[in-house]
User: Fold these one by one.
Assistant:
Number 1:
Amino acid sequence: MKLLGTMQNMDGVLEIGGVSVINLKREFGTPLYIYDLEFMEKKIKDIKKTFKSEKFKTTIVYASKAYLSKGMAQIINKEGLHIDAVSGGELYTILSSGFNSKNIHMHGNNKSYEELYTCVQNEIGSIILDNRFEAEVVAQICKSLNKKMNVMLRLNIGIDAHTHEYIKTSKHSSKFGESIFDKEIQDIVKNIVEKEELNFLGFHCHIGSQIFDEMAFCEGVSIMVQFTKEISDKLNIVIPEINLGGGFGVRYTEEDTDADLKKIMKKIIASLEENLEKEKLEIQNVTIEPGRSIVAQAGSTLYTVGGQKKTYGGEKYVFIDGGMTDNIRPALYSAKYESVVANKLNESKKELVTIAGKCCESGDIISKNTKLGKCTEGDLVLVSCTGAYGHSMSSNYNKALKPAVVFVKEGEAFLISKRESYEDLIKNDCVLPEKIYNID
Ligand code: LLP
């Protein structure tokens, strides 16, 4: 496993942020999500430093779906980044953290009336409209509250970008946004612009996630700039902003390219400047929405080894005390991870094993056929790069307790979320009335 961020081998025991995993296990138990705060702050600073231009302002919006807690929102607020939400729950968490509401942006392809109402009431930074119908609802809410709302329109620009490839104009059936190829698109925009309750800022797109191909982003930039120019000319309006979404790829294992985030940022800026010049378009602000690239590598999951088993079929299993409930990505996307025996880093004997969880599900696997140091019951296995879409997609399947989350930095560990308790699992369960539940 590649040691990431502040990870260090201290006489065979892994330290993150200057805290040994043995101490983390003792204080907080396992499974445990550990975030390397210094590393996360470095990622943020790298993006802030490189996503910059002299031709326009830039805004970095953290895509909170990658990982969100009140503590995380506080870090994002402290670093001066904006944040997005795609649900009432994310919005509630962010607002509860005391986040500057002007720096919150609301996404979602099916926002409820209540969610939109909360946005307008709290005067958040902007709502990214998914479609023509949503514009009507937001305008109506604004009217009733006597407020004006900044809006953008999400576009489907016809790029389907996958992990290592992108196929132009093939993704016309996505559920997100309005298509730039829709023959009514100009009227849809005109309708939004004409609503006096709405302040139209411009267009948004997001071409996919875990993208390594810089050319896919540049292709996106070119289409967005051309489209913005075309609409502003046809409607004779000034469109001040462009939002390019997130999706910047991250190295999980040696199979991935070691994506250079700073290089990608610089490339996007260069492509923007070139395209704006070519189209003779002036833009005041360009936004990006990184999620994974800020938190993925900063987060790891610590587990305790339980039993081990060699099956009749020859598979060697190492069982850990978590699994698909705290990391669904291997089961859902065949995602791959690297891992180590974190309290025996100097163990030279390695075995090819499958790390499996404790759920009643054959697909409950964290790493298939991975090289792991020899370990026994009670040892600690650390899986790296679980910081994005691990905690945020966790579940209570088999009534598993969601693990605690800690941030570590300079020798200290800060509890960000407590481990769930059994009481938490049943706190919303109601008791049936006697007329239904009668065991006599
Ligand atoms: N902006 C929008 C509108 C998005 O839909 C997303 C991610 C992002 C920004 C952030 O993308 P990122 O920089 O994190 O790639 N659950 C999947 C990822 C789904 C991404 C959904 N949208 C996974 O575990 O790989």
Note: The longest helix spans residues 214-235.
Number 2:
Amino acid sequence: MIAVPDPEQLGNIENIVSLTTGQYTTGSLILMVSYGAHFAFMLYFIMMSFQPAPRYRIVPILSAVVMASAGLSLLREYTLWQESYQFVGSMYLPLAEGETFTNAFRYGNWTITVPILLTQLAIAFALPRPELHVRSLRMIVPALLMIWTGLYGQFGEAGDWSQLNFWGVVSTLFFVWLIVEVRGVVKRGIALSPEPLKAWPSNIWWYFLATWGLYPIAYALPQLGFTGEVVVVRQLLYSIADVSSKLVYGLILSRYVLCRSAIEGYVPAAEALDTHPEASAIAASRGD
Ligand code: RET
């Protein structure tokens, strides 16, 4: 006899909702494009890591590591998505072959990528060594607490909303603490940036808030209802957040350190920027 599962035991709402062909295919597509983009840009970051001055090369290299880690995790989400649904009649039904889908793997992946993304910021802003370590640690501690309390809370999304909301609030408190720490690093970034790049840290700050802020929205979304739309929109939100907070963020930081290398007199970086609008600002700042 097949026991009817208790919805609360199903973890994620993906295991409760049947999807139309359009919704199922859109979900596959979103996950596929996400892992594809991360793997492709791993190559980009490895290759461009030769352009900035040696002291900044670790910034694109760390982005390549983040791309590999996130790409593998998203590939796993994709294969799990494929395995967890079965086309029956006219709909894709969950729990195919007893396989459950989960978003919890994402949280495991963030445990690796988030500390790297935060440390990358402090390295790009060229914080001096002892301060770099202290500030990175002060960001990583609240970030990990935010992720792990959220991981526990998200197991409640399929029915136990007091678990979802209680741990969501606890996690948000750690997020606020993290935001304060990041703000401190951004302020140091403004102070330490060369004149033509002074606007970058504050722009990165707003970009950070806008992109990291998408994750709690995705977390809370199941409360809008257990529907195919919510399932697909949430995967979309996660993907937009992933591509912007890791990939595009990596592009921004890599560009920042490239410009900074040129300003600090590293000739190959200045040559690499030659045809770009930044080049004239850099040349002007050096009195060329
Ligand atoms: C959770 C739980 C609900 C409350 C808050 C959350 C914040 C998550 C964030 C995640 C960022 C992840 C990144 C991953 C990159 O690889 C945990 C969803 C505030 C901000 C940047």
Note: DSSP finds ten helices and two strands in the chain.
Number 3:
Amino acid sequence: MALTDLRKKITDRSARIGVIGLGYVGLPVAALFAQKGYDVAGVDIKAERVEKINRGISPIEGNEPGLEELLAGVTQSGNLKATTDYQALADRDVVLIDVETPVNDQHVPEYQALKSALKSLGGVMKKGVLVVVESTIMPGTMRQIVKPLLEESSGMACGEGFFLGNCPERVMPGKLLANLRAMSRVVGGDSSETSAVMKDLYQQVVEADVDEADWITAELVKTVENAYRDVQIAFANEVALISEALGASAWRVRELVRKSPGREMLLPGAGVGGHCIPKDPWLLASSVRNKNVDVRLIPAARSVNSDMPRHMRDLIANQVGDLTEKRILLMGYAYLENSDDTRDSPSEALRRLLTEAGAEVVIHDPFVEEFTGDLYEKAGGCSAAALVTAHSEYKSIDFPLLARSMASPILVDGRNLWDKKIVLQAGFVLVRLGDFSQ
Ligand code: SAJ
């Protein structure tokens, strides 16, 4: 089917859509297209996830406004059906790929999930299909890996037998649906005609700009925007370390620096976690690993940020002395406040460092099933407690009760969450990351 036919089916919403990977990205996007009236087939390798979705229940934990209701509606109407069987994609006009793209210890993506999805899709997809990779990929991946793999597995030529695009996702846990609607998207096609059809497709669900580009530009936009954020956070963290050494408060410095135009300094913190920021800078840096580009800033920023849990360990050790057999409470295990998402959690890195130093680590997190429970009970016998994730619940701690519960009243605030006066009045020694002002 030529692109013109496909364009018509997209705009009259008779196009049949497939989505591979029903996680944080794939599930909301499948539900949104289904809500617009498209027939959507979602494919995922996890049978229990498929089963839950077909019952109209979201397998995504945490608070995702509107997702449960939306999912219930589109599964009830039959517009969205989930399955583990790739055969369901055989009659699709459009297939979106939303599988994970982790990097290995050498910070290079291996693409197991992506390659498997492309092989399985190629084996069933029909002539004229538009395939769009939404997963975040290393710049160059569309040309070097996706196109040849899909041509080989389908036996068809890109641009003739099928059309191929990259439209990087821009989701954020806790705002999945809102972001899908409100954030602009870049659509990179194998040709400008394909980019134009992709624009028609995404304009059905995106209320913001849909900007046309080529593959390499689309791949760069996503990895650059997250590397940019990582570098900004690293800068704030380095200012925190400098401020501590000089007996100043990086938080006060930041507040005043931000008064100067164009200085939107970000926040120091106990660490940088999540599925995007720790990974995407490496996807960008590794895109030129075989070219003579001396990429120094991006890896340096990664090193500063991934060392923040070690700094938190040092702040704790400076107060409690030898960590051997000391009981330490970590408040917050999710990588982001008021979320249950624990991927690449700085708390896990800190737990490991404290355990290696001989400490007994107790973890509390109101959002993470494994670590819920009574905070004050968990604080029992602890020589110190460290705030790693700024969950709102931790703003209203009963500090006198917490002090009475602990073996020694030492608090390390890794997110500048607590009011110094209130904490000191409760008899605590308070160490605030980035703030050694008197
Ligand atoms: N963090 C800091 N200091 C800051 C900001 C964040 O230490 O000033 C830490 C957070 O505690 C967390 C990590 O960095 O551990 C990542 O936080 P994030 O706010 O960047 O949240 P993410 O990981 O959900 O990032 C997503 C990204 N969105 C996409 O990839 C589509 C990112 O591009 C967005 O900028 C970010 O959400 C956002 O703005 O909320």
Note: DSSP finds 17 helices and 13 strands in the chain.
Number 4:
Amino acid sequence: MKQDFENIVILTGAGISAESGLATFRGAEGLWEGHRVEDVATPGAFVADPHLVQRFYDARRAALSTVEPNAAHDALARLDAEWRGELLIVTQNVDDLHERAGAKRMLHMHGELRSALCLGCGERSRVEGDLIEFPPCPECAQQMLRPDIVWFGELPYEMERIEQALMRADLFVSIGTSGAVYPAAGFVQSAKYRGAYCVELNLDPSQGSIFFDESRMGPASELVPAFVDELLG
Ligand code: BJW
């Protein structure tokens, strides 16, 4: 790998949090027990059975306090602190392990478990406890709150900021994601089209593996710290 990169975009997925104890979506012990995530992570599923959906996300929000960032999150936080060029960590994950590791230049494109979205005014607010009792929105006090998760058919957050960063990136790194869900799965092609060097760090080849210049296979807790050491020289 060449060494003279300036602007980096890093995409992370469920695989980076797997070794912290959070299940991935499409693995053997995938989320939503028996249901394909594509069938249930939709606005329609929430309308059909809001209690089920709130209970599911309440349990996952509560589980956050039982897990810790792993060596891969720590390494990316170190890269964020020490990298002098531009850097943006775009996570598809709704956990808070990147920020708890200390990463600052990051965003959650698929929402956050510790955030709630008002069905009326659309404001986002921090939430630590449960939403099963449908508390009113702290902003408008009128409407109820739903999990602030981007479901299928909804627009991911901060797409413009991501596109801008991809346009400037000369290194794109994808970590722990299957490449099954768009638009994130298409970032490698956007980055490549604009000339970025593209590296994949994953347990298995992702669906878009052929688009990467380099694919390193193994657990994120080993691959990511080694990769960050290489970048920081
Ligand atoms: C390890 C590891 C270890 C394991 N170390 N690695 C037809 C064609 C193309 C697109 C579409 C289509 N039909 C519909 C669409 C669009 C749709 C889509 O992509 N559908 C697909 C099913 C085809 N997308 C959308 O609807 C999105 N919105 C949208 O497109 O809006 C329109 C638009 C956008 C932008 C511009 C213009 C228009 C919204 C997608 C929302 C996804 N939301 C979820 C939330 C789930 C709810 C919840 O959290 O409960 O986000 S789905 C779920 O998948 C979650 C994840 O962020 C996302 C990606 O999963 P991820 O992270 O890749 O996890 P896995 O499990 O799939 O993979 C884990 C990987 O880790 C594996 O590869 C393992 O090998 C690896 N691994 N252990 C390293 N220790």
Note: Residues 13-15, 18-19, 24-27, 31, 37-38, 41, 92, 94, 110, 149-156, 159, 176-178, 180-183, 202-204, 206, 219-220 surround BJW (CB under 6 Å).
